Amino acid sequence: MKRTGTAVWSGDLKGGSGRVATESGILDNVSYCYHSRFEHDAGSNPEELLGAAHAACFTMTLAGELAAAGMKPRSLITTATVSLGKVGDDFQIGSVHLNLIAFIPGASQAAFEQAALKAKLECPLSRVLNTHITLDVRLDH
C-alpha cells in the first residue's frame, strides 16, 4: 500500500508560500508558509500535519492492541505535540509527546498501560521517526 501527499512551494523561504494536498483529497490546497510554521500565522505547517498523522497512527494501533487484550474502548483521544527547535544551525524535531485520554469500561489500569506502551512502540509512524517519543495516559471508565 502506498499513499501520497503533495507539496508545492513558490518563492524564497521567508517570503514564499506553499500548498499541500493529499491523494484522498481530504487536504486540498492547504496553505503553509514560513510565518505559519515559525510565527503562528494562519495556515498549516509540517509539524502539525505530522502531529495529526502520528496521533491517528498511534490511536489506530492502540485500538488494535486493546482489541487483542479483550478491551473495547468507548473513545480514545490522542494529542501529539511535535517540538521543533534549533540544534546548532539546523532545525530538528527534538521530540513528540503523545497525550492519551481513553474511555474504556471495565479496563484494568495495568492492561491498558501495557497496550498503550506497545502501541507507542509499534505504531508505524513511531518507528519511522528518529526522535524521542514520550507518552502520558489517563484511563477513565
UniProtKB/TrEMBL annotation:
SUPFAM superfamilies: OsmC-like (SSF82784). GO terms for molecular function: peroxidase activity. Pfam families: OsmC. It comes from the Bacteria. GO terms for biological process: response to oxidative stress. InterPro entries: KH_dom-like_a/b, OsmC/Ohr_fam, OsmC/Ohrsf, OsmC_Ohr_Peroxiredoxin, Peroxiredoxin_OsmC. This is OsmC family peroxiredoxin.
